[in-house]
Amino acid sequence: MSTTTQTQSRWRNRAKQAPVKPLTVDGVEINKLTGFALIAILAMLCAMLYIWSRTDLRETALALSNAQTQYNTVMAEQERLRLELASLRNPQWLTVASDVLVLDASAEVVEIKVAAQP
What we know:
The protein is mainly α. The protein contains 3 helices and 2 strands, in the order αββαα. The chain has a domain at about 20-100.
């Protein structure tokens, strides 16, 4: 037998075989269209889950960025208040700090006292 004849013979034998049985689950037949619909619904659910997670991640990143900005602002304010408190506790601190930084000592330093508000 030639190769072509063998191939034709195989196809004829397959055609004579029993038809493909439909897919059944618990005795209920699921045709191909229903299977494709289930796969399409599953794919849509996965896409929706992915989109939701990315949106949630972006919102969380934005909230984190805002929190970091607020934190940096508060830390700068705290440092400013710490310096102000140090200068209020010991006004000579500024003179000592200027000596350490080797600033011009010939400049006049004026101490301003603020009257207490009633």
